[in-house]
Amino acid sequence: MFASGCSDYPRSNQEPQPESSEDQIEGDSTPNFGYDILTTIDSDADEPAGISAYSITAVTGLTRDTSIGLAAFLDYADEDIVIFHVEFGLFIYDLKLETITFSVDLEKTVGTTRLQGNEEPGVRIIVSSDGSLIQLSGGIHAPYFVINTSDGTYSIEEYWSVFSTYDKLQGVLGGELFSTDPAGGVGTVEQLCFRRGEASWFLFSKWDY
Fold first, then answer.
1. Cα dihedral 167, 76, 193, 199 sign
2. Average pLDDT for residues 157-182, to the nearest whole number?
3. Domains of the chain by residue range
4. Which of the four pLDDT bands, split at 50, 70 and 90, describes residue 90?
5. What span, in angstroms and rounded, lies between the C-alpha atoms of 45 and 19?
6. Predicted local confidence at residue 25, as pLDDT
7. Dihedral sign, CA of 129, 132, 136, 142?
């Protein structure tokens, strides 16, 4: 039984809260659900300073009309959880509880929302093959977080750990992100869904707006 039922949009009779210009994330209207490009960390980089000062900040201040931004990215999916990120945040969604159980504000946590590219530094997200760990960093010379997906605890490390990573092709075969935006765009957080076969979930259906 899947309460979210993305085909049933709109899913709620509640009046949307007034949109706040501070909460709105501007983004390209062109849908682009894909994956960021990951590059190899430079293990000879200088040791970052002030590692102990880093901490994870959860996402707050969303409204139902908050734009996804440029794209939504599927980082991991199995029978229990979906890990995904959008321009402003990283999220863990519990498929059994049908709710987001963990979030990271990328700007406040790693200092950037730019995605890692071949030459430009930016957000780097790698999930272990079993979905138990997430590696998150804001650049090749920045310290990185190792997040335990089962309870949200984390450590801060100087260099990237080496572990078997999740095959994102497997994620494509195991499910996909999509938007119910009637205009065909990337849409808002309220319109973002995960679909696997005939089942679908509104990922932000139980978010505390």
1. positive
2. 78
3. 6-12+30-42+49-202
4. very high
5. 43
6. 28
7. negative
